[in-house]
Specification:
225 residues; alpha+beta; Structural Genomics Hypothetical 15.5 Kd Protein In mrcA-pckA Intergenic Region, Chain A; Alpha-Beta Plaits; 3 domains
Length: 225
């Protein structure tokens, strides 16, 4: 059993303080009946809780395969939405991956979540594994970590680490268009494979390319908090 305020907070539908105001205002329904008592507990597995005038926001995590675009306008079978059921076709991607890249992609209809994931002021880390055509050197990693001057400005400091003769790992807190490919090119590297493996504290785990899962309430709150 869990208090309604905590349940709504974990669902990302309202802060605990806001939930208290909604309860007192008669805006919360439990199993079709208005609930006005603070501290009432519900069973999330059995009880249906609604906020009048609001709908539950959704967020999923997709392991995007290489070779698919994130836009809906592409030919059938060439877009990431090919992998998603009808119920999730209206979700928008957050933090695009280009056609040649793969890995973690979050899709949601939660504008607050999308803002926290993309706005630079929140500095949410995105970790990538990169394979290159040329050999990687420590000097290259030092340059990538310190920031690279691109056509649209200087990149923020990153954390780049060599992981193999022709591979490296990089963690960014911003998302310029094709940023890693352009940064790599600036130090003499050609990217041949790019995979996003982590966003914030959430990793790709055991999701195979093309597989997806719903983000848990506590995972969504990790980004919002």
């Amino acid at each position: 059993m869990i208090r309604i305020q905590k349940y709504l907070s974990e669902k990302g539908m309202a802060s605990r303080r806001e939930a208290e105001r909604l309860i007192l205002a008669g805006k919360i329904m439990v199993n079709g009946k208005v609930e006005r008592t603070l501290g009432t507990k519900i069973d999330p597995a059995k009880d249906r809780v609604e906020v009048l005038g609001r709908r539950e926001r959704r967020a999923i995590l997709l392991n995007k395969p290489e070779g698919y675009v994130v836009t809906k306008g592409a030919k059938e079978g060439q877009t990431i939405y090919h992998w998603l059921p009808k119920a999730f076709q209206n979700l928008a991607y957050v933090g695009r991956l280009d056609k040649g890249s793969s890995g973690m992609l979050i899709l949601t209809d939660d504008g607050v979540l999308a803002s926290h994931l993309t706005a630079e002021k929140y500095a949410v880390e995105k970790e990538y594994e990169v394979k290159t055509q040329e050999d990687v050197t420590p000097a290259m990693m030092q340059r990538l970590s310190g920031g690279i001057r691109l056509s649209d400005g200087l990149t923020k400091p990153a954390h780049a680490m060599k992981t193999g003769k022709k591979s490296f790992q990089i963690v960014l807190v911003q998302g310029k268009n094709r940023q890693i490919r352009r940064m790599a090119a600036a130090v003499g590297l050609t990217v041949v494979q790019l995979t996003r493996v982590r966003i914030g504290d959430i990793g790709i785990r055991n999701l195979k390319p093309g597989e997806w899962r719903v983000l848990a309430f506590n995972e969504i709150n990790l980004f919002k908090n």
